[in-house]
Amino acid sequence: MTDWRSEVDAWWAARLRLPPAALRTGGTWVMPGSGHIAVMAVTGADRPLGYGPARALPVLRQVMAAVPAGPLAEGGRFTGGPLAPAARAAAASGFRPEAAIGPAWHGYVTAASLIRERSPAVRPLSPADLPLLSRLREQAPPGERDESGTTGLPAYGYLDGGALLAVACLGLWHEMPTLGVLTHPAHRGRGLARAVVAAAAQAGLDRRPVVQYRAWRGNAASIAVARHTGFAYYCDGLVIDLGDERTG
Question: Per the confidence metrics, is the pTM higher than 0.85?
Fold first, then answer.
């Protein structure tokens, strides 16, 4: 196992309050007090990992039964991702459609794997640039804007003629640097997203040895940006908000 996977395993284990070996062995785990159940298909693991509160174990087992058994191959290149059947199983269990969050693709980059796409048009954004960010978000389709998580600073933008054409925002999720990216619909296919993602990832690597990139499995363009910038696939994740549904 490469060092970056050990780092990411340890981070997930701390976040989920599980032993690090659980990321590799998989199986079903009880997480007291959780308001959701979740399934992770970690590349190279013995089997999928599922967790949730004890009251939801029957539903969790039903959802996990839909996940392909056995180790997940590097890359996870399945139609809709390996957790698409689990999402369908959640719907069949009676959850409202919006209760299932994902499946999502998770990738990570290190200083050694980052492919730097340097461009003189890319620079850190300042508070004075926030109106440009707002304008870019207004010009993007609502679904892409909401998925992108591009809501504020720190951020790195590709500017041309005073217009912000692409942006990557650097956030922190449970102490893990994570990225959100958005490109103007009229300026795609030019490598702008790769340039801003590389800049933001470099800044994130100043905080931690690995930086995370997440995208909905259906967003092939976003996943391609991650791969072309050096992010390596780690897992697919599916979260199902329990609320008061189907849990007894």
Answer: yes
